[in-house]
Every structure is written in structure tokens, then in C-alpha cells.
Design goal:
Number of helices of chain B: 7
Low-confidence stretches of chain B: none
Largest interface: A-B, 34 and 31 residues
CATH topology of chain A: Methylamine Dehydrogenase, Chain H
Shape of chain A: globular
Shape of chain B: elongated
Structural class of chain A: mainly beta
Number of strands of chain B: 47
Helix content of chain B: 10-25%
Keywords (chain B): Coiled coil, Cytoplasm, Initiation factor, Protein biosynthesis, RNA-binding
Largest sheet of chain A: 4 strands, antiparallel
Strand content of chain A: 35-45%
Oligomer: heterodimer
Subunit structure (chain B): Component of the eukaryotic translation initiation factor 3 (eIF-3) complex.
Protein name (chain B): Eukaryotic translation initiation factor 3 subunit B
Strand order of the largest sheet of chain A: 1-28-27-26
Strand content of chain B: 35-45%
Pfam family, one (chain B): eIF2A
CATH class of one domain in chain B: Alpha Beta
Mean pLDDT of chain A: 86
CATH superfamily of chain A: YVTN repeat-like/Quinoprotein amine dehydrogenase
GO molecular function (chain B): RNA binding; translation initiation factor activity; translation initiation factor binding
Distance between the termini of chain A: 9 Å
Order of helices and strands of chain A: EEEEEEEEEEEEEEEEEEEEEEEHEEEEEH
Chain lengths: 356, 708
């Protein structure tokens, strides 16, 4: 099926997210105006005006009522999704890279970049304390964690999420490490080195039992959140900007491509701007979907597994609906006992999707 | 006193008050014998012929430098002893030149010089002759015969039970030979592990297969060339050649030529015999009579098809050396005034060469038979600016692409001269092309050729045309007693066009070694890397792409083809290093295998000999059905084994992951009450939290009205 081409942004897409139920899709871009889309038909429902800088991240709560957007203008804004009204602005010391609702939708955490003399910071706010009236006076954060320089080099965080039951904050860094912070005391509980280069994104699955990192070192790694144990590595030949775990199948979707910087010097076909599909278990690529003409910056898969969206440097969001052959796809290794089954010929139906 | 006075008078004149000459003028004392040489193996002649021989020898030696003649002593710089007892000369002479350089030169030129039918001169420095004189004579002991060492079977790979092909890649520091049959992923045959254990690399530069695939030559610039062979890749030969850059095997694998491409090395090119490892001859990078220009690449050596001759172009001549003596054929080069290029025929000792217009003589293409030097055919051409010659690989046809200019020299156009060597008199046909022809290639073992042409040579869209040198002609013939007319197809030698494909994006053509299939590729920096697999017989076309591809290599039997993005070994940073690697395709254009590397230098298929003749191949084709069954069964078995092998580990892997996932799910289930608590008691699994609404959508697909 032809994908919906969501042309709502004027600049590179930074992040896209489905809501919990998978009927809404949010997108943010460097053009400062996040959009909300109806997944079913690709229609734009509305926009959120107010930011004065790139919107780096956004997060929708569990019940699709409130949206948080984090921007390079050093603010996080809280919106009413239904009305599109701005409810509150939380000012920060530096550009805000990431924002994440806690599991109870009452608190949220943000990460901000180092700015002038300030270090990078992790901040936790409690929205329950908002009076709902004024958005002028600033709310005191619940907790502020200072992330100091390491080896006299400023560290930058790239992604934040809460683990199950708000136990920890899971934060990815631009030097390839991932840390667990205690959200009440602000101490580092655990640190693991996942990549050698920048981690572009860290995404959890919906049940928060697994997470996948995407790195500039051309690989993506799957981890078990509970034990922080490395499970799988997916290798490509270009930097990976985003990766998602399918909720319904044992598949991983990877997006990325040649760095935006060097794109102009090469043809669109070379950058490998396809969404790549990997077998979660066997780490093998079994299909890809073409379409973008810039590196894919953001990927999201619908929790119901029926569609997925990709947002790229070219400013477009492509909303793809899986065709029947994909939905009917089975594990390439039959379940039957060894040596008794017949040979099955694998169909590479993914390849013909999205060829238009 | 009177005595004394008388004595003084007598001695007068002997004594002088004049001071003595402080530097008396003695002739320069030569302290070494550098300038002297000994010429051996001259004919032994009696007194009567002595004068004549002396004359002849003097004539030869004096051409090579000035003899150290001394008029005072009457020494001519040449002395040939005469044995009065035997009344004949001794068969040698001593020559002295003025300078050591002249002597050196004379040694290099005269050594091995064929003086007459029975006498080849042996020339050595006088110093060496002196040493030999003092040599103590020992009794001759017959050298012990070295025990027979069995060399590894160079053909072992051809006996592979599953008829696979081999290829070698150079990547990073690795040199790996792998098996490939187009059905399963390549299997490594040998990767130099034995040498690695010993702490050395078996290849440090490029490597090359010999023309029949018996040897793999690896280049180690510090040492030279090493040959490997047999099923375990044993070292079977080593050839010293420092800084070696390229090697050239002779087609029958008897000789190997190494080249270090150094301008300053008088022995830049070395020719070895492979079996014995003997150095046969060395050459300088450029022939003597050619002006050395850094921009002009040195003229390459070319072996004739049967290893009989090695030829190189010089100024106005072609030097042909015959093997194994490595001497000039008939002591003289083949004169060819103004020669620009020459090529051996791939299947006979015939040279094709062309020279441009010069001194009112038109440009011409000549076919010359060696060793008779008989001109088989000459074709004169006018208004020529360039020619390029392309042989069909059986030597049946020669195509000469002639780029011509109009009288004003402003516009260029092409025509193709086609020689039929397998017919009496070698008829030539001319094919006129209005377009610029970019590339022309012959179908291997066939009579067809393909070429890329376009009106404007710089245009991106080009046309590809196919021609056949043989025309199928159908004649009705009476057959049998009843005289029934029956169609008969015969081939007549007539050039005819098959078809033209327009609007292609390619700059190179690669015929499959099996014929019929051609790969039209756009290679290089400026091209897109389009690959079009075209079957000339069935007209089926498959379009694929390998971005940045700069090489296309068919395997020796046309089953699969490789496209590579490779970088030179020397040259530092490579712009497209990201794309480095190779893709293996089936001849129908299906991608079979792909590998990427950070640094990728080389890919080479192991060549194999065509052992079947044309009729034999035709016979096999006819009986293909018979073979098909047997191969299909083998394929099935192999695929089955492979499948079992592959899935074995995967099941375990999957089980492991599934266990982990179910553990995690279990953990989450335990945590669920607390999760619900966090959401203020909202349970997403509780159906009462959902509003169920039924919507029925009716879509009218089409309406139709019918009159009853």
C-alpha cells in the first residue's frame, strides 16, 4: 500500500511518537511547530505554536491528554492535546534535549544540554503542583541533577526515559554510555558502556522490558531493561539514528543513513535512507523500505503493529501501513522439531513495499 | 789530473745544472684491468684465415667503443694468441677499451652474441678470466641427483566435487581465497593462516592467478613474487624482484614476468621460468630507443598465445624475443615505421599493429605472421586520428575502431573495420558509424559484438548496438527421395545488425564468458553504478544497481558476476571507502552475496581453462536434460544439508531469547498491581474502561442498471 506522506514540516524531523493507543501520531521538527496526526487517514489534526527553537523531543501521556515538548529555546511546554492550548512553560538553563513522562503521568523528567557556564542537567518536575491558572510563575523543580564534566569534557545526554514503576531514569549519552539514575536521590545507580560512539536514540518497548539503542557506530543494540543485559546487536553500514522494537512481531526496525552533512555530495540512492527490517533473534536483515531522500531521524511503530512511521532529514513523515504478506509473515525457522520439516522458501515481500 | 779532466770531459753533457722535471711524463699506469675483456668461443682458424678473423672481430669490437691502441708500442688494443704448435688460433682473444664503461657495455652486448652458426660468444671481464686461471682443477664429481619432490597438484581445485569456482580477495591485511557456486554463501578455502602463524603475511601487495588458474602469485614488494599452488596452497616458487608492482604470466604458465615500474632500474623487468625458477633475462622499463617521458606509460610486454614469443614495442619497431633463450627473434626487431600499438592474436602467432599517417603514407593496420614476418593483410586508412584494436578471444575476428576526422579536422566520426581471420585472404568489412563509439566488445567464442555509441560522446544516455558477423540464412532444399522441400539454416559470413537498445546509462560492456548474456554497466566516479543484465538471445533485461562500482568481473564460466568498489593499495584515503566491498550476482541479475570492507583492494576469479571444444559444448547443451536431473538432485541434497546446518543454531538462539522475554513478561505481570496503582487504579485490561461502539461502513463499489 502506498504510504501517507505527511507534509507538515518545513525542516528536518527530529522525533515522532505514537500515543499509547496508536490512533494518534505526534511529530516534531526543527521548524519549531510540533504536529498531531490521525493515524487512520494521515490527516493533520492540529499544531502546537509557541516554541522559538528546534523541538528536540516530545512525549504524550498514557491517556493522550497532555503533551510535553522539549525545545532548544531552553523551555519545555505542556499542552492540552484536545484543545491545543499551552498550559505551562518550564524554563531551563540550556537547550532541552529530551523529555519523558513518568509512569504515573504526574511527574516528568527532562535533560538539558550544557550551556555557557552551566553543566548538563537532569530535571524532574511534578505537574500535580501546577495550579492550572497561571503559566507565568515558574514551578520549582522537584529535583535537579547536575551532570558534571568528565575528563574536562562536557557530557551531553541524548535521551531520557523512565523505567518500569518509575524505578529509575534511563539516560543515554553522546559518548556511548547508558546510565541509571535514582529519580528520588539523583544518584547514579549503574553505568554501562553500550557503544563507542554517540548514542542517537534509546527506545523502550511498550512494556518497558527491553530497550534498543541506535548509534553513530553503525550498530543498534538490544538490551534487557531489568538486568541491563546485552541481548543482540544489529549491524548496518551507515550511522543508525533510530531503532524501534515491534510490539507484535520479533522484528526490529532501523533507520538512519549517511550523515546529513555529506548527503549533498552523493545521490539519494546511496545514502541508504531505507528503513531496514531485522529479525530480532537472528540479527539478520530481511527487508527494507525506500522512500526518504535524507537520513531517517526518527522511527515509530504503532503498538498495534499495523503501521509504522518514519521521519527524516528531508522534512517528511511517511506513514506506512503493513500489507497482508508482512502481517502474515512467520519466523523463518519453522517451529517443528529439527529435521522433520520441509524446506520453506522465504518471501521477501518487504522489498516491494513503498516502491512508488 | 789529466785523467780526471778527461773523465770530466767525457761526462760532460750527462750532468746538467738544470733542475729535473718534477713530473716526468710517463704514460698513465692502469692499476686495474677494468678496461680489458676476454672474448671466448671464437672459431679456431689456421694461419691462412687468421687475418680475416682478426678483421671481422676487430670490426665488431671497435663498434662498441674505442680500443686502447698505443701507437708507440704498436698495441692495437686487441690480441688474439696464435698457437704455433697446433697451427691454429686458440679460440679466444683479449680486447682492451679506453674506458671501463665501454668494456662493460661490450660485455653486455657481446655476451651470447651469435658470431656464426656454431659459435656464440662468451665474454667476461679480464679480471674474472684471471681468477679462473688460478682455479685449482679438481676431479669432476657428478652431482648427486636431488631426491624427487612431488609438487602439489596444481589442478586439484578443478576436481572439486561440486564444480565450484574460486576467487581471491585482498582486503585490509587479509588475502582470502573462497569457494563459490552461486547457491550458498562463499566458503573460505585458504586465508594464509599458516603464514600468519609464522608471523608473516602471504601477500602484501596485489595477488594474481595464473592464466589457467594453476598458481596464485602473491606480491611481497620487499622480496618478490611467491607462487602458491595445490589444495593446501603450498609455496611452489619464489622469484626475487624487489619492489615488484606487476606480474605478467605467459598464457601457458611457463614463464612469469615481473616489473617494478622503476625508471632508474636497469633491471626493472625480469623474466623467470616458472618450473626451474631461473632468471632468463632482464629489461629496463623503457626500450633503449624510446624517449623516456614520465607521462607516457612504458610500452607493455605481451606474450604470444603459445608462450613462444615475448614482444614489446619500441620506436618504429617491435622487438620479439623467442623463448626460452630470450634472444631477439632472428637477431633483429620487426621494423614497423611509426607503430602506435600492436597486439598478439589470442590464438595464433599473428601480430596486429597499426601506425598513424606519416610522410604522405596513409595510416595502416597490418596483420603479420610470426616467425615468417609475412604480412598477411594490410589495410590503409585515411584521415585517422586514432585506432583501437579488439580481438575476438578465439582470434577469429579483429575489430578496429577507427576514429576519423573530416578534412577540416573539426569533427570526428567512427567507423569499424572488421577482419575475418578464419577466411582465406582475410576479408575486411567496414561498418560506418555516424556516432562516437565509446566501447566495443566481442562475445567470447562467438561471432557477435556489442558497442556503446552516442551522437555526443559526453552524453549520459547512450545507445548499445549488437551486430553479428554471421548471418543466418534460410534456404529451401530438396531432401530425400520425394524431394520434399525442407528449411535449412546455414550461416553465411555477412555482417548484420541484431538490434539497438536506446537510452541506456552505461559506459562499459561485459559479455559473459558463456556468451549470450551481457552486462551493461555504468562504472566509475561520474556514473550511477547502473547494472543492466541483458540476454541477447531471449531479450530479457534486468536492471540493478551497485553504487560506486568500479569493476565488473565475470567468473570463468559465466554463472555469476561480481561488481566491486575497490581502492588502490597505495593512495591513502579513499573517497568512497564507505562503499568498499563487492556484490556477487547470478548471471540473471539476482544478488547472491554481498560483503563490505573498510579497505578493499582486489577481487579476482580463479581462471579455468576451456577444455571443451565448440562442438563438444554444443553436444552438452543438447543433452542438458540428462544432466539437469543429476544436478538438481545434488543441489537439493546440498540445500537440505545447509538448511539443517543453518537452522540448528537458530532454534537454540530463539529459545534463549524467548526464555528471556517470558521472564521479563512474568516480571511485569508481578509488577502490574503496582503499575495500576500508579495510574490511580486504571486497568487497561479492564473492559469496563472501554466504550465499545459498533460502526458499520457501507461502500458502494459499483452500480449497474439492467433493463429487464
Amino acid at each position: 500500500m502506498r504510504p501517507y506522506l505527511l507534509q507538515g514540516h518545513e525542516r528536518p524531523i527530529t522525533v515522532i511518537k505514537y500515543n499509547y493507543d496508536g490512533d494518534l501520531l505526534f511529530s516534531a521538527s526543527k521548524d519549531q511547530i510540533p504536529c498531531i496526526w490521525r493515524v487512520e487517514n494521515g490527516e493533520r489534526l492540529g499544531t502546537f505554536h509557541g516554541h522559538k527553537g528546534t523541538v528536540w523531543d516530545l512525549d504524550c501521556d498514557r491517556f493522550s491528554k497532555q503533551l510535553l515538548t522539549a525545545s532548544a529555546d531552553a523551555t519545555v511546554k505542556l499542552w492540552n492535546i484536545q484543545s491545543g492550548d499551552l498550559q505551562h512553560t518550564f524554563t531551563h538553563r540550556g537547550p532541552v534535549r529530551g523529555v519523558a513522562w513518568s509512569e504515573d503521568n504526574k511527574k516528568f523528567a527532562t535533560i538539558s544540554d550544557p550551556f555557557v557556564e552551566h553543566n548538563a542537567k537532569i530535571t524532574i518536575f511534578d505537574t500535580a503542583e501546577l495550579d492550572g491558572e497561571s503559566d507565568e510563575d515558574d514551578l520549582e523543580p522537584l529535583l535537579e541533577i547536575d551532570v558534571p564534566k568528565e575528563n574536562s569534557r562536557r557530557v551531553q545526554m541524548t535521551n531520557i526515559s523512565w523505567t518500569a514503576l518509575n524505578e529509575h531514569l534511563l539516560i543515554a549519552f553522546d559518548n556511548g554510555i547508558v546510565r541509571l539514575y535514582n529519580p528520588t536521590t539523583g544518584t547514579i545507580e549503574e553505568e554501562i558502556r553500550v557503544h563507542d560512539k554517540k548514542i542517537n536514540r534509546l527506545q523502550l518497548n511498550q512494556s518497558k522490558s527491553l530497550f534498543i539503542t541506535s548509534s553513530a557506530d553503525f550498530t543498534s543494540k538490544l538490551y534487557d531493561t531489568a538486568n541491563l543485559k546485552h541481548l543482540k546487536t544489529y549491524t548496518t553500514d551507515r550511522p543508525v539514528n533510530d531503532a524501534v522494537i515491534s510490539e507484535t512481531k520479533d522484528h526490529i526496525l532501523l533507520g538512519g543513513g549517511q550523515e546529513a552533512m555529506s548527503v549533498t555530495t552523493t545521490s539519494g540512492k546511496v545514502g541508504k535512507f531505507e528503513t531496514r527490517f531485522f529479525e530480532l533473534v537472528y540479527e539478520t536483515e530481511f527487508g527494507s523500505v525506500k522512500g526518504h531522500f535524507g537520513p531517517i531521524n526518527a522511527l515509530a511503530i504503532n503498538p498495534n503493529g499495523r503501521n509504522y512511521a518514519s521521519g527524516a532529514e528531508d522534512g517528511y513523515v511517511r506513514l506506512h501501513f503493513f500489507d497482508k504478506s508482512y502481517l502474515d509473515m512467520k519466523d523463518p525457522v519453522p517451529e517443528a522439531a529439527e529435521g522433520t520439516e520441509e524446506l520453506s522458501t522465504d518471501d521477501d515481500d518487504e522489498d516491494n513495499q513503498g516502491n512508488e | 789530473m789529466a785523467d780526471l779532466a778527461a773523465e770530466a770531459e767525457e761526462l760532460d753533457g750527462y750532468f746538467s745544472d738544470a733542475s729535473l722535471d718534477p713530473e716526468p711524463r710517463y704514460p698513465n699506469l692502469k692499476e686495474s684491468f677494468d678496461t680489458a675483456i676476454v672474448v671466448l668461443n671464437l672459431p679456431k682458424v689456421p694461419e691462412a684465415k687468421r687475418g680475416k678473423l682478426e678483421k671481422v672481430v676487430t670490426k665488431i669490437i671497435s663498434r662498441l667503443g674505442n680500443l686502447a691502441a698505443n701507437e708507440d708500442t704498436g698495441f692495437t688494443g686487441f690480441s688474439m694468441p696464435f698457437n704455433a704448435e697446433k697451427a691454429s688460433t686458440e679460440g679466444f682473444c683479449i680486447v682492451e677499451y679506453e674506458t671501463p664503461e665501454e668494456a662493460k657495455n661490450a660485455i653486455s652486448v657481446l655476451n651470447g652474441y651469435k658470431f656464426d652458426k656454431n659459435h656464440s660468444l662468451i665474454v667476461s671481464p679480464y679480471v674474472r678470466a684471471q681468477k679462473l686461471e688460478n682455479l685449482a682443477e679438481k676431479e669432476f664429481v657428478e652431482p648427486e641427483q636431488a631426491p624427487f619432490e612431488e609438487k602439489p597438484n596444481a589442478m586439484s581445485w578443478m576436481e572439486d566435487s561440486s564444480q565450484r569456482d574460486e576467487y581471491v580477495i585482498r582486503q585490509g591485511k587479509e588475502t582470502i581465497v573462497s569457494w563459490f557456486d552461486g547457491k550458498v554463501d562463499p566458503i573460505v578455502d585458504y586465508d594464509g593462516s599458516r603464514e600468519k602463524e609464522a608471523g608473516v603475511n602471504w601477500c602484501e601487495y596485489y595477488c594474481h592467478w595464473s592464466p589457467k588458474g594453476s598458481y596464485l602469485a602473491t606480491l611481497v614488494p620487499a622480496k618478490g613474487v611467491i607462487l602458491w599452488s595445490g589444495s593446501t596452497y603450498e609455496k611452489v616458487g619464489r622469484f626475487v624482484a624487489s619492489d615488484v608492482k606487476t606480474v605478467l604470466f605467459s598464457p601457458q604458465e611457463n614463464y612469469i614476468l615481473t616489473n617494478n615500474m622503476r625508471y632508474d632500474d636497469e633491471q626493472a623487468i625480469k623474466v623467470y621460468e616458472i618450473q626451474t625458477g631461473k632468471l632468463l633475462r632482464t629489461f629496463a622499463l623503457y626500450p633503449d630507443n624510446i624517449e623516456r617521458e614520465e607521462e607516457v606509460p612504458p610500452p607493455p610486454f605481451q606474450w604470444s598465445h603459445d608462450d613462444s614469443y615475448l614482444a614489446r614495442m619500441g620506436k618504429d619497431l617491435v622487438s620479439i624475443y623467442s623463448t626460452p633463450s630470450m634472444r631477439l627473434l632472428d637477431k633483429k626487431s620487426l621494423l614497423a615505421e611509426g607503430i602506435h600499438e600492436f597486439q598478439w592474436s589470442p590464438k595464433s602467432n599473428v601480430l596486429a599493429l597499426w601506425s598513424p599517417e606519416r610522410n604522405n603514407a596513409p595510416a595502416h593496420v597490418d596483420l603479420i605472421e610470426i616467425p615468417s614476418r609475412k604480412k598477411l593483410r594490410q589495410k590503409n586508412l585515411f584521415n585517422v586520428s586514432n585506432c583501437s584494436m579488439v580481438w575476438q578471444n578465439d582470434g577469429d575476428y579483429l575489430a578496429v575502431k577507427v576514429t576519423r576526422h573530416t578534412k577540416s579536422k573539426k569533427t570526428l566520426y567512427n567507423n569499424i573495420e572488421l577482419f575475418r581471420l578464419n577466411e582465406a585472404g582475410i576479408p575486411v568489412e567496414m561498418l560506418d558509424m555516424k556516432d562516437a563509439v565509446m566501447s566495443l566488445t566481442w562475445e567470447p567464442r562467438g561471432s557477435r559484438f556489442a558497442m556503446i555509441h552516442a551522437e555526443n560522446p559526453s552524453s549520459t544516455k547512450v545507445d548499445v548496438s549488437f551486430y553479428d558477423m554471421m548471418k543466418k540464412s534460410e534456404t529451401m532444399k530438396k531432401v530425400g527421395k520425394k524431394g520434399a522441400l525442407q528449411k535449412q539454416t546455414t550461416l553465411v559470413p555477412e555482417l548484420n545488425k541484431i538490434e539497438t537498445l536506446t537510452g541506456k546509462q552505461c559506459n562499459c560492456l561485459f559479455w559473459s564468458p558463456a556468451g549470450s548474456t551481457i552486462l551493461m554497466a555504468g562504472l566509475g566516479d561520474s556514473a550511477s553504478g547502473t547494472l543492466e543484465f541483458y540476454d541477447v538471445d531471449t531479450k530479457s533485461l534486468t536492471i540493478k544497481e551497485h553504487y560506486r562500482a568500479n569493476q565488473v568481473l565475470w567468473d570463468p564460466d559465466g554463472r555469476s558476476v561480481t561488481t566491486c568498489v575497490s581502492q588502490p593499495v597505495e593512495g591513502g584515503h579513499f573517497k568512497f571507502a564507505m562503499d568498499n566491498g563487492y556484490i556477487l550476482w547470478s548471471f540473471q541479475g539476482k544478488q547472491l552475496y554481498q560483503q563490505s570492507f573498510e579497505t578493499f583492494y582486489q577481487f579476482e576469479w580463479r581462471p579455468r581453462e576451456n577444455l571443451l571444444s565448440k562442438p563438444e559444448i554444443a553436444k552438452v547443451r543438447k543433452e542438458l536434460k540428462k544432466y539437469e536431473k543429476q544436478f538438481e538432485k545434488a543441489d537439493k541434497d546440498r540445500a537440505r544439508a545447509l538448511y539443517l546446518e543453518e537452522t540448528k543454531g537458530k532454534r537454540q538462539e530463539r529459545k534463549k531469547i524467548r526464555d528471556i522475554l517470558s521472564q521479563l513478561r512474568e516480571l511485569r505481570r508481578e509488577q502490574r498491581p503496582r503499575h495500576i496503582e500508579l495510574l490511580d487504579g486504571y486497568d487497561s485490561d479492564d473492559d469496563t474502561n472501554y466504550v465499545v461502539r459498533e460502526i458499520s461502513i457501507e461502500t458502494i463499489l459499483s452500480t449497474k442498471e439492467e433493463t429487464v
